[in-house]
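User: I need a structural model of Flagellar motor switch protein FliN from Rhodovastum atsumiense for a docking pre-check later this week. Nothing fancy, just the predicted structure tokens so I can convert them on my end. Input:
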Amino acid sequence: MSDAMDLTDLGDAGNGAPEQSGPRSARDLEAVYDIPVTVSAVLGKATMQVSQLLKLGRGAVVELDRKLGEAIDIYVNNRLVARGEVVMVDDNRLGVTMTEIVKGERPG
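Assistant: Understood. Predicted structure tokens for Flagellar motor switch protein FliN:
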């Protein structure tokens, strides 16, 4: 028997109660609320040889595969989940606003 638990087996918030039919409520997911995840916003990618990488110095510009204004990719635990735009949160912090939820795509 496997120790892995399927979230659909949680029943009533994992208290051993039989699973109820009908729509799931937020209370049913309480068991996963405190699980940490890693969120990454990828502006773009570049490929270069190690010799080129070693020549980079302060102020060097690395050209990415995206155009200005193009949506960025948002990953959760290395899985593409959304696309969005970079926004300024305050005078010295950046954030991301989601503009599109991506379903069924894997990182490339």
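Before docking, keep this in mind: The CA atoms of residues 82 and 102 lie 5 Å apart.
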